[in-house]
Automatic annotation (TrEMBL):
UniProt name for this protein: VDHAP protein
Keyword field: Hydrolase
Stretch forming the signal peptide: none
InterPro entries on file: Amidase_CS (IPR020556), Amidase_dom (IPR023631), AS_sf (IPR036928), Endocannabinoid_amidase (IPR052096)
Similarity field: Belongs to the amidase family.
Domain Amidase: 5-212
UniProt entry tagged with the keyword Repressor: no
Keyword Translocase (UniProt): no
PANTHER family named in the record: FATTY ACID AMIDE HYDROLASE, FATTY ACID AMIDE HYDROLASE-RELATED
Single Gene Ontology MF annotation: amidase activity
GO annotation, biological process: fatty acid catabolic process
Length: 234
């Protein structure tokens, strides 16, 4: 409901993913509860979801319904997450704005006269507007970092090949820099939880080209800024 509300105001959703209810019922019956159990997750347009298109903002892809989930969507579901919407992008995704001729212009919920940034602009707008608490974007030259900055969110572009890109529709350009999928949310803890959930056996088995290195909590905590009282005593 929240997502619909935000979408009406800023035009950030391109599609609602069906079957969420069934998935939740299935999850409830499972003994093992995943790290993302019951969390609705928004997904950037070009990440393949079974039964949906990945348009990249281009008309030529409109008829191509994907037959299976991308690896990242399979892993999110394995961890109990519920992908529930696909979000808008600029045409071809090589742009720092967020509009295309199919779905139109996405606005920034903090200021509708401004852009939410790109190319994961639909994610930025939906999360900042309160329609999603965790989203998956992608970044080659700032496509997670810019909308996170423009919309006042946290985002992470992981190291190259850390998360499987298998089953995502590529940009039509061949670029020297490796694009990466990564999480977007309102706080760093959510990003860490998402990375921890994604870096699991399931992903390493589905895509053997990804180095099977689990999430390292110690490294993350080493980067935590000291509280003012600890600094006084430190």
């Amino acid at each position: 409901g929240e997502a619909l509300e935000v979408n009406r105001e800023v035009n950030c959703v391109t599609d609602f993913i069906h079957g969420c209810e069934d998935q939740l019922q299935k999850l409830k019956k499972q003994k093992e509860k995943g790290l993302l159990y019951g969390i609705p997750i928004s997904i950037k347009d070009h990440i393949n979801c079974k039964g949906h298109i990945s348009s990249g903002g281009m008309v030529k892809f409109l008829g191509q319904v994907k037959e299976e989930d991308s690896v990242i969507v399979q892993v999110l579901k394995h961890q109990g997450g519920i992908p529930f919407v696909k979000t808008n992008i600029p045409q071809t995704m090589i742009n720092y704005d967020c509009s295309n001729l199919i779905f139109g212009q996405t606005l920034n919920p903090l200021n509708p006269l401004k852009s939410p940034g790109g190319s994961s602009g639909g994610e930025g707008a939906l999360i900042a507007g309160g329609g999603s608490i965790l989203g998956i974007g992608s970044d080659i030259g700032g496509s997670i970092r810019l909308p996170s900055s423009f919309c006042g969110l946290c985002g992470l572009k992981p190291t190259g090949n850390r998360i499987s890109p298998a089953g995502c529709s590529d940009s039509p350009f061949v670029l020297a820099v490796m694009g990466m999928l990564g999480p977007m949310a309102r706080d760093v803890d959510s990003l860490a939880l998402c990375m921890k959930a994604l870096l699991c056996q399931e992903m390493f088995q589905l895509d053997p080209t990804v180095p099977p290195i689990p999430f390292d909590e110690q490294v993350r905590l080493r980067g935590t800024p000291m509280s003012p009282s600890a600094q006084k005593h430190g």
